[in-house]
C-alpha cells in the first residue's frame, strides 16, 4: 500500500524523466558542441586587449561590430565566397556522377580486371593528398588550368572513398529489385536511377556532407594552384589572419571565421530535417 | 613619335597619293609601336608570405601598385603564398615544373636550399654597381651571402628580443631589464608567482616552435655560430652550456618546459608569463593587445651579446631571360629603397634594411613614439644569419626535438645535442652528395 502511494506520488517525476531522459544526456552534450561556436562569436565582438585578459571576463565590454568590416577588408571575401561555392559545388556535382557510375560498375557488373581495378581505387584512399601534389600540379599545368577555378576542381572529380562507400551501399540492395526493373524494360541507367539511387540516398547525403566540409576548408591545394585574388577561396582569406608568425589576430580572425562557417551552418539548418530523415530511413531499412 | 613622323612627311613636297600612303604607314607604325610597347612590359611574379598580420596583404598590394605606376616597362603581380613554409612549397613546386616566379620572399634560412636547386640569380655585380654594399646594414646583407656571392636583397629582417611586462616588474620592484643570463634567472625567479604550489605566472617563456631560433641566439651569446654552410656544430661545448642554462631555468621552476609560438604570445598578453622571447615582428601585436605596459630589451648576454635573424630577403630566379632578371633587380632594388623600407618598417615592425631608412624624418618621429622599435635595431648589430644549411627544415626538427626532450627530462643535454648533431650532419651530407 505504502509503496503504491509513493509510486503514485512520484509518478509525474518518473514520467517527466522517462520522457525527458534523453534531454538530460543531450543538453550538456549540445552545450559542449556549441561552446566553441559561442566562443568564436563572443571573441569576434571583443577588443583585442580583452581576448586574453583574465580580468576582462567572458563577455565583451562593448560589442565591437567594427571587427567584421575590419576583417573583411583584409581580402575580397565576397569573391572568395562565390569561388568557394563554385569550387565545392563543382566538386560535389562531379563526384556524385563519377562515384555513382563507378560504384554501380564495381557492385553489379562483371568484367575482367574488376578486382584489380577496385584494389587500385582503394589504394587511392590510402595516399595522403600531399603525396600527389606535384604530379597533380604537373597535370593541371599541362591542361592549362593553373590559376583558374577548374584547377581546384579537376583533381577531385573522382573519389576512391566515395566509390567504396557507395559500392558497399549498392551491394546491400537486393538484386531482385534490379531484376524486376529489368523485366519492366529498364537499362542500366534506368535501374540505377529508379532503383539504386533512391535506396542509397542516406549514403549519398553522408558522402556529400563529408566532401563539402573537406573541400570547403581546403587550404593548401588552392593556395598552390592559384595566384590571383579573383580565383581564390575563403580559407586563403582566413589564412591571411591566422597564419602569421606573430600570433593570430584573434578578434578579426574570429569575425572572419563566423563569416566563413555561416554558409555551411545555414545550409545545415535549412536541410536539417532532410538530413536527419534520411539517416532515420537508413536505420529503419 | 608618330606625330613627329607625320610632320616630317608633311614637310615633303608630296602628292596626295603619297600623303595617304604616308598616313597609312604612320598608323601602321604607331600600331606596331604600341604592340611593341605592350610586349616590352616585362611581367614579374612576386610570391610573398604574410609574416606578421593580416594587413600585410594590403600593404604589399599598395606597394606593388605604386611600383607598377612608376615603372611603365615592368608589371609585377603580387601573389600571397601563405606563411614562410607555404611560400617555399609553392616556389619549389613551380621550380619543379620549370616555371619559377621571377621573385619571391622566403625565410633567409632557405638560402642553401634554393642554392641547392640552382634556383637563384647571382646579383653581386649589380649590387656592387649600386650603393647596396654601402647603405645596407651589413648584418642583414650577410643573410643573402654564400661563398662571397650575393643572392638577393634583405627585405624584412627580424630578430628575437626579450619582451617585458613593465607593470609586473614595477609591482615586483624591479627597475632594470636583465642584461646577463644570471640576471635573467634572478629576475625570472622574482617574477614567478606560485600560490599554494599552484603556478599563477611564469617568470619567463621562450616562444616555442621557433625555440631553435632563440637557441641559436643563446649559442651566439656564447660566441658560437652553431653551423657552417655544410655542417652544424650542436655538439660544441658552447652549445651544451647554453642548453644546460635552459635546463637550469626550467629546474628553477621559472620557465615552462614547452610552449607554442602563438600560445606563448597569448600567455604574455594574458599576463601568464612576465617575460617572453619572441620576434620583433610581434611588437605591434603585443603592444596593441596587452592591457599593461610592454617593454622590449636586448636578449641578455653571457660572454657576448648575440642574436640571429629571421625574416627574409627578396630572391630572384636564375632561370629567366636577362631582361626579366634585370626587371626583377629593379623591383627588388625599389622594394629595398630608403623610403619604401622606412615605411614598411613603421607599418609592420620589421627592421628597415638601409642605414638611410633609419635617418628619414618619418622614422625618427616613429622612434620617438615607439622607442622599443629601436632596441631591435641596436641589437641587430650583433645579429647574423639563421641556420643556413642544406635541408634546414629537417635540421630544425632534429634540434627542436633535442631541446624539447631535454627540457622534458627525457634525455641529458649532452646526449641530446650529440644525437641532433649526428642526425643533422647525416642529412646535410646526404643532400650534398645528391647535389654532387
TrEMBL record, chain A:
InterPro entries: MetI-like, MetI-like_sf. The chain crosses the membrane at residues 21-42, 80-104, 116-137, 149-170, 191-216, 250-271. It is found in: Cell membrane. CDD domains: TM_PBP2. The keyword Membrane applies. It comes from the Bacteria. GO terms for cellular component: plasma membrane. It is a multi-pass membrane protein. Keywords: Cell membrane, Membrane, Transmembrane, Transmembrane helix, Transport. Residues 81-271 form the ABC transmembrane type-1 domain. Signal peptide: none annotated. GO terms for biological process: transmembrane transport. Belongs to the binding-protein-dependent transport system permease family. This is Carbohydrate ABC transporter membrane protein 2 (CUT1 family). The lineage of its organism: Bacteria, Pseudomonadati, Pseudomonadota, Alphaproteobacteria, Hyphomicrobiales.
UniProtKB/TrEMBL annotation, chain B:
It comes from Enterovirga rhinocerotis. Coiled coil: none annotated. It holds the Pfam family SBP_bac_8. The keyword Mitochondrion does not apply. SUPFAM superfamilies: Periplasmic binding protein-like II (SSF53850). Belongs to the bacterial solute-binding protein 1 family. This is Carbohydrate ABC transporter substrate-binding protein (CUT1 family). It is found in: Periplasm. Keywords: Periplasm. Its main location: periplasm. PANTHER family: ABC TRANSPORTER SUBSTRATE-BINDING PROTEIN, ARABINOSE-BINDING PROTEIN-RELATED. GO terms for cellular component: periplasmic space.
Amino acid at each position: 500500500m505504502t509503496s503504491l502511494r509513493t509510486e503514485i506520488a512520484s509518478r509525474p517525476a518518473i514520467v517527466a524523466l522517462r520522457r525527458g531522459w534523453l534531454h538530460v544526456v543531450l543538453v550538456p552534450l549540445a552545450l559542449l558542441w556549441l561552446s566553441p561556436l559561442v566562443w568564436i562569436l563572443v571573441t569576434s565582438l571583443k577588443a583585442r586587449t580583452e581576448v586574453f585578459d583574465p580580468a576582462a571576463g567572458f563577455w565583451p565590454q562593448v560589442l565591437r561590430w567594427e571587427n567584421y568590416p575590419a576583417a573583411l577588408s583584409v581580402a575580397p571575401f565576397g569573391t572568395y565566397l562565390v569561388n568557394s561555392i563554385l569550387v565545392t559545388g563543382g566538386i560535389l556535382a562531379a563526384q556524385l556522377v563519377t562515384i555513382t557510375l563507378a560504384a554501380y560498375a564495381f557492385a553489379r557488373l562483371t568484367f575482367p580486371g574488376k578486382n584489380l581495378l577496385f584494389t587500385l581505387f582503394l589504394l587511392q584512399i590510402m595516399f595522403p593528398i600531399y603525396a600527389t601534389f606535384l604530379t597533380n600540379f604537373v597535370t593541371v599545368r599541362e591542361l592549362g588550368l593553373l590559376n583558374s577555378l577548374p584547377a581546384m576542381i579537376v583533381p577531385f572529380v573522382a573519389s576512391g572513398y566515395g566509390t567504396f562507400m557507395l559500392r558497399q551501399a549498392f551491394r546491400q540492395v537486393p538484386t531482385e529489385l534490379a531484376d524486376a526493373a529489368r523485366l519492366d524494360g529498364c537499362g542500366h541507367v534506368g535501374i540505377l536511377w529508379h532503383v539504386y539511387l533512391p535506396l542509397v540516398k542516406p549514403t549519398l547525403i553522408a558522402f556529400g556532407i563529408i566532401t563539402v566540409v573537406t573541400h570547403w576548408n581546403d587550404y593548401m591545394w588552392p593556395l598552390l594552384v592559384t595566384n590571383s585574388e579573383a580565383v581564390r577561396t575563403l580559407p586563403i582569406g582566413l589564412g591571411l589572419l591566422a597564419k602569421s608568425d606573430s600570433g593570430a589576430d584573434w578578434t578579426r580572425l574570429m569575425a572572419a571565421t563566423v563569416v566563413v562557417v555561416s554558409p555551411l551552418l545555414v545550409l545545415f539548418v535549412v536541410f536539417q530535417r532532410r538530413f536527419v530523415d534520411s539517416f532515420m530511413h537508413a536505420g529503419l531499412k | 613619335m608618330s606625330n613627329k613622323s607625320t610632320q616630317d612627311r608633311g614637310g615633303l613636297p608630296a602628292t596626295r597619293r603619297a600623303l595617304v600612303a604616308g598616313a597609312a604607314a604612320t598608323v601602321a607604325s604607331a600600331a606596331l609601336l604600341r604592340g611593341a610597347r605592350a610586349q616590352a612590359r616585362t611581367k614579374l611574379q612576386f610570391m610573398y608570405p604574410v609574416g606578421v598580420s593580416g594587413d600585410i596583404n594590403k600593404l604589399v598590394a599598395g606597394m606593388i601598385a605604386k611600383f607598377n605606376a612608376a615603372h611603365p616597362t615592368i608589371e609585377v603581380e603580387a601573389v600571397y603564398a601563405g606563411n614562410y613554409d607555404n611560400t617555399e612549397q609553392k616556389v619549389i613546386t613551380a621550380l619543379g615544373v620549370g616555371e619559377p616566379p621571377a621573385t619571391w620572399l622566403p625565410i633567409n634560412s632557405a638560402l642553401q636550399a634554393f642554392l641547392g636547386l640552382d634556383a637563384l640569380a647571382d646579383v653581386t655585380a649589380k649590387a656592387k654597381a649600386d650603393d647596396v654594399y654601402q647603405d645596407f646594414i651589413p648584418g642583414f646583407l650577410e643573410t643573402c651571402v654564400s661563398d662571397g656571392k650575393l643572392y638577393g636583397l634583405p627585405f624584412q629582417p627580424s630578430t628575437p628580443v626579450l619582451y617585458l611586462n613593465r607593470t609586473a616588474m614595477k609591482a615586483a620592484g624591479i627597475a632594470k631589464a636583465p642584461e646577463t643570463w644570471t640576471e635573467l634567472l634572478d629576475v625570472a625567479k622574482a617574477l614567478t608567482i606560485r600560490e599554494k604550489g599552484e603556478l599563477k605566472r611564469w617568470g619567463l617563456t621562450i616562444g616555442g616552435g621557433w625555440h631553435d631560433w632563440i637557441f641559436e641566439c643563446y649559442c651566439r651569446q656564447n660566441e658560437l655560430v652553431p653551423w657552417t654552410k655544410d655542417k652544424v656544430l650542436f655538439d660544441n661545448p658552447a652549445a651544451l652550456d647554453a642548453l644546460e642554462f635552459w635546463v637550469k631555468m626550467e629546474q628553477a621552476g621559472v620557465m615552462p618546459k614547452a610552449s607554442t609560438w602563438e600560445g606563448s604570445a597569448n600567455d604574455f598578453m594574458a599576463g601568464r608569463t612576465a617575460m617572453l622571447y619572441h620576434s620583433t615582428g610581434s611588437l605591434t601585436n603585443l603592444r596593441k593587445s596587452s592591457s599593461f605596459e610592454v617593454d622590449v630589451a636586448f636578449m641578455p648576454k653571457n660572454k657576448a651579446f648575440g642574436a640571429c635573424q629571421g625574416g627574409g630577403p627578396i630572391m630572384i630566379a636564375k632561370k629567366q631571360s636577362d631582361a626579366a632578371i634585370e626587371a626583377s633587380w629593379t623591383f627588388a632594388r625599389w622594394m629595398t629603397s630608403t623610403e619604401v623600407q622606412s615605411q614598411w618598417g613603421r607599418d609592420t615592425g620589421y627592421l628597415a634594411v638601409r642605414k638611410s631608412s633609419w635617418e628619414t624624418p618619418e622614422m625618427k618621429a616613429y622612434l620617438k613614439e615607439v622607442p622599443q622599435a629601436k632596441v631591435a635595431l641596436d641589437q641587430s648589430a650583433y645579429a647574423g644569419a639563421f641556420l643556413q644549411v642544406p635541408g634546414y627544415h629537417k635540421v630544425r626538427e632534429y634540434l627542436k626535438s633535442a631541446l624539447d626532450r631535454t627540457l622534458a627530462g627525457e634525455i641529458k643535454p649532452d646526449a641530446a645535442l650529440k644525437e641532433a648533431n649526428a642526425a643533422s650532419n647525416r642529412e646535410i651530407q646526404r643532400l650534398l652528395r645528391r647535389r654532387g
